[in-house]
Design a protein that fits this description.
6 domains; alpha/beta; 10% strand; 18 strands; 38 helices
Length: 897
């Protein structure tokens, strides 16, 4: 046993007896004491032989630390073998073990830190007799496993109180049990939505699909069939059953609101958590490269280039499998099409009179009837299939052709109508004798079912449902009231109705689904097929344009309201709100600024308001592609009206996004034009704004003297105008230019003055930016203690802001500090993590910022040597961002080597 605690990278072992309390009850105190003594003796013997350090023993648990991952694995395997041989009690005592390698912080006579918690959580997720290890430990022992030992991939798992998922493995060896049981974690890395009810039937389909999707040689499976057939629900069940075969994760991508290839890439990137970039396709491909993952791409039929997107994705990520749902196949090479059938019906083989002899329990064995009973029971508690109504229920299910959505909508009406009353209305309401010949037969039936539910509504909610079709991704109660509820058309039979009464009538009819938004308020949405029908009804109504205009006006006001909060204390809530409404905002922009829109009129001005107000949101979220598209359109439309304030504001916003995208040359030309116009106008605040942004563009182009002149002017004009926010920005930008010019002490004063203003304004994001610049200035001024303290405090704040560019900049600054402190390997790991973040964003590292980094990193790189530096860079790239940042900050507090 070592005399001193191991330092740096250590491997932690946690063990305990599975179900010890229950075992004590079954064995009794005396026999349990014998079992406990044997377990302690065996584990201590193995630990001491391998040089482990016993940190604590409590009850039946151990916490042991090893300086070597190989020694830790050897000790754990030896202990598990001996424990297996010693089992004589009935029931037997089984010990679960977990290993994780990390860099916990020494505190007094022990260790603290996230790595300790991670090791404990891994052990707690194991079953008795299992030895589970983390990815970090696996990498360290992969080339030196004991003879006969094997590593079994258990996939990615989430653990309590641990933000990022962990890739874990089971270590097996001769003499150990090989029970590959599901870990007791919070689940694998998957985002599958929770179904609202149990899946009815589909055993045959699952029996064929699960092995098909899990086959590594099958890359693309497409579930096809008409709308409402249950493709999405079946895909969810398959994904849940086959998740163990995809250690890199299972991801459900909702594409019902998507209509183009670009949007499909962006939605997929958002679902995977890939940071925004100029090329979401590259980001998705890089994110999935090498990992065996399953992508469930739901609702592809309305995306004209979906096949091209899927083909590109499969070629870029060679181990990814796609499970798609669509009304038609994608016609790609290697595609396995799986037509989803209707639900099974009672096999009557006769006329309707045969139903009279049918037993309810036999009828309920069919999938269609079982689904009807399930949904009817939810609508009318206590509903049960009886001999009196079984023939009517079977007739309804047969008439609906076993279509799940049609059955769901029909069963919902049992709240008001008996099965017999429902059946008597089907012929008239479904319009089965007047199909549209240009639609597939089953689609006709489903459309008739939706039409039937629609026609059963009173005039007021019927009009509201059509208007709700304007919303792409649901809406709040306030939005519904503003767009869908007022007036109800020419006749207003419900002018005095409470909006909630009307909406909940639609909810009761299962035409609208109500959930809870992040603010706790109700949020309303429709199934896609219902929205399509509602939208058709809206487009054929004389009020369609007015509803679209109301929709755009509502979101213009919302965007303006929330954008005003993006620079103050409520900025995180405002970002969440705008994120939630992105699809609706895009729809409003398409309606008001689409390519066919004429450059004049109130409708266009509404679109310009939306784009102008969204510019800062696009900047903060790194959504430069979206922002540039719409601001380009606004500039084109505004240009026809001359060089007025609206055009100049749009040009300024566009130029800012160009600067951050690394296109400073193009941005400089636009900003010079804006600055010249505002100089003619004489508005000091506007001149200050343009001078500051133009100064940043010149800095990125390496023209520091010109940048300084513009920023000095911006500071003076902002003071003259009394514009505190513009002043703080100009001061911070000027401070950074002084760093480029080798004047860190001067920069510190400028940045601190700007930071004080931002703090008074309550702008947490701006304060974080100023603090990052201040950290660099302190480093260049060789004030290392101050820099260390500042960056340590800043780490948590920056992560809360969820800004990938800001996080990358922080990681780079910490890397500079580590290099200055002599922690060369840690500096390289931090830079590896920063490089990975940069590659996944649309904010490249600028040459001037790289020059500052090189002042610190070049000596560290030379001291470490090229090979060691590259190894550390690769380790940093492989680590999760929170882990990499936490480890880097912890290292800055350690003495210089």
């Amino acid at each position: 046993m070592p005399e001193e605690l191991p330092t740096g990278t250590v491997t932690m072992l946690f063990t305990d007896i599975e179900g010890s309390t229950n075992l004590l009850t079954l064995l009794g105190p005396a026999r349990y004491g014998e079992v406990l003594s044997t377990q302690r003796q065996i584990i201590r013997s193995a630990v001491n032989a391998a040089g482990g350090f016993e940190m604590g023993t409590e009850g039946d648990s151990f916490f042991v630390v090893f300086a070597s991952a190989r020694d830790a694995v050897a000790a754990a395997l030896t202990a598990q073998r001996e424990l297996a041989l010693s089992r004589r009690s009935d029931p037997p005592a089984r010990v679960r073990m977990g290993l994780h390698t990390g860099e916990p912080t020494q505190y007094e006579n022990g260790y603290v830190g996230l790595d300790v918690h991670r090791a404990a959580r891994i052990a707690a997720a194991a079953h008795g007799g299992q030895l589970v290890i983390s990815e970090t430990t696996r990498r360290l022992v992969a080339d030196a496993l004991p003879e006969g030992a094997l590593v079994r991939d258990l996939g990615w798992h989430r653990f309590k109180d641990i933000t990022d998922p962990e890739h874990v493995y089971q270590l097996t060896a001769p003499g150990l049990e090989e029970r590959l049981l599901p870990l007791k974690s919070l689940g694998t890395r998957a985002n599958l939505p929770a179904p609202l009810s149990a899946l009815i039937g589909r055993e045959a389909e699952l029996g064929r699909l699960v092995p098909l999707v899990g086959d590594p040689n099958v890359r693309l499976v497409t579930l096809t069939g008409p709308g409402g057939i249950g493709k999405s629900r079946l895909a969810l069940a398959v994904a849940a059953d086959v998740g163990h075969a995809f250690p890199a994760g299972v991801f459900f991508v909702r594409l019902a609101a998507v209509s183009s290839a670009d949007q499909m890439w962006s939605k997929t990137a958002d679902t995977l958590g890939v940071p925004p970039s100029s090329s979401p396709a590259d980001g998705v491909g890089d994110h999935l490269a090498g990992g065996r993952a399953l992508l469930v791409l739901d609702n592809l039929e309305q995306i004209g280039q979906a096949g091209e997107v899927v083909a590109t994705l499969l070629s870029r990520a060679s181990r990814v499998t796609v499970l798609a749902t669509s009304r038609r196949p994608l016609h790609l090479q290697g595609e396995m099409e799986f037509p989803v059938p209707t639900l099974s019906l009672p096999d009557l083989a006769g006329d309707r009179r045969a139903l009279r002899t049918y037993d309810p329990s036999q009828a309920a064995e069919s999938e269609a009837v079982a689904l009807f009973v399930q949904q009817a029971s939810a609508a009318r508690p206590g509903f049960a299939l009886t001999p009196d109504d079984v023939e009517d229920v079977v007739a309804i299910c047969r008439r609906l052709d076993g279509l799940p959505l049609a059955i769901l909508l029909a069963a919902a009406r049992t709240r008001l109508l008996s099965p017999r009353a429902l059946l008597s209305r089907l012929d008239d309401i479904l319009g089965l004798g007047s199909h549209q010949a240009d639609l597939p037969e089953r689609q006709q039936t489903l459309r008739s079912t939706v039409a039937w539910s629609y026609d059963l509504l009173a005039p007021a909610p019927r009009s509201v449902l059509a208007r709700l079709g304007a919303f792409v991704s649901g809406c709040s109660l306030e939005a519904a009231a503003a767009v869908a509820l007022p007036g109800y058309g020419d006749a207003d039979p419900a002018a005095d109705l409470d909006p909630l009464d009307v909406l909940f009538e639609l909810v009761d009819a299962n035409l609208v689904i109500v959930g809870e938004g992040p603010d706790g308020e109700p949020r309303f949405r429709m199934l896609q097929i219902v929205r399509e029908y509602a939208l058709d009804r809206l487009e054929s109504a004389p009020e369609a344009s007015a509803v679209r205009d109301a929709h755009a006006a509502y979101f213009a006001a919302l965007v303006e309201e929330q954008s005003s909060l993006l620079r103050g204390p409520g900025q995180l809530h405002a970002i969440d709100r705008l994120d939630q409404e992105r699809d609706n905002i895009r729809a409003a922009l398409e309606w008001t600024l689409g390519e066919r829109r004429a450059p004049a009129g109130e409708r266009t001005r509404v679109g310009m308001r939306i784009a102008g107000a969204m510019s800062w949101f696009w900047y903060r979220r790194g959504s430069y592609v979206d922002g540039r598209r719409w601001l380009d359109r606004v500039v084109a439309l505004s240009s026809t009206a001359g060089e007025g304030p609206d055009l100049l504001d749009a040009m300024h916003s566009l130029a800012v996004l160009l600067v951050e995208s690394g296109e400073a040359e193009a941005a400089r030309s636009i900003l010079e034009r804006c600055l010249a116009a505002w100089r003619r106008d004489g508005d000091p605040a506007k001149i200050a704004r343009e001078a500051s942004s133009l100064g940043v563009a010149h800095r990125y182009l390496g023209e520091f003297d010109r940048a300084r002149d513009l920023l000095v002017e911006s500071v003076a004009l902002a003071r003259q105008a009394g514009d505190q926010r513009r002043l703080s920005t100009a001061l911070g930008n000027l401070g950074v230019v002084e760093l480029d010019r080798g004047m860190p002490e001067l920069a510190i004063g400028l940045i601190q003055e700007g930071r004080a203003i931002d703090a008074r304004l309550g702008d947490a994001w701006a304060v974080a930016v100023q603090d990052l610049n201040l950290g660099n200035a302190l480093l260049l001024a060789d004030r290392l203690e101050q820099a260390t303290a500042l960056l340590g405090l800043l780490a948590e704040q920056v992560q809360d802001l969820a800004d990938p560019d800001l996080t990358a900049t922080l990681m780079e600054t910490v890397a500079s500090l580590l290099a200055r402190l002599g922690h060369d390997s840690a500096a390289a790991r931090a830079m590896g993590a920063a490089d990975r973040l940069r590659e996944n964003t649309d904010a490249p590292r600028q040459a001037c910022d790289q020059a500052i980094l090189d002042r610190f990193l070049a000596p560290a790189r030379e001291r470490a040597g090229a090979a060691a530096w590259q190894r550390a860079l690769a380790a940093g790239r492989a680590a999760s961002t929170p882990d990499a940042l936490g480890a880097a900050i912890a290292q800055t507090r350690r003495p210089e080597p």
